[in-house]
Write the structure tokens for this entry.
Amino acid sequence: MSDCIVTNEKDLRQLSIITTMEEAKELRLRQRLKSANKTAWTKGAGLTAIQIGVPLRFAWFSINGSDEILLNPEIVDVKGQHIFKNEGCLSIPESYIDTERYSYIEYISEGKLKKAMNFKAVLIQHEIDHMNGTLNIDRKL
Ligand SMILES: [Zn+2]
């Protein structure tokens, strides 16, 4: 059975805490997020652990058929502020809003420095926001 996707705003406002790969594996977070994603109100590209009720700094996402995770991610540099149209959230059904996001980010995840652009960069900013209890509605233009 799949985990339910949390839609209660109070629960989503929790601050997630640092985790380890061992803990994430033990809790099967990647698999659980992936299968919860299939139950979402719309086709989603990623989910953060808090969205299945686990307040740990872990997320799973899929872009162009490749699966990736975020483990204790931290943005270290940003470029190119731009307006992202129709940003959705699997925890906020039937809602698409315009937000202001960066089009390029450098971030650390799993202890490694990585880069992301465009949609992937926006997605990572969205998931990191979830880890801090921030929702896209907070960034509505
Ligand atoms: Zn979301």
Remarks:
- Residues 9-139 form a domain with the Peptide Deformylase fold (CATH 3.90.45.10).
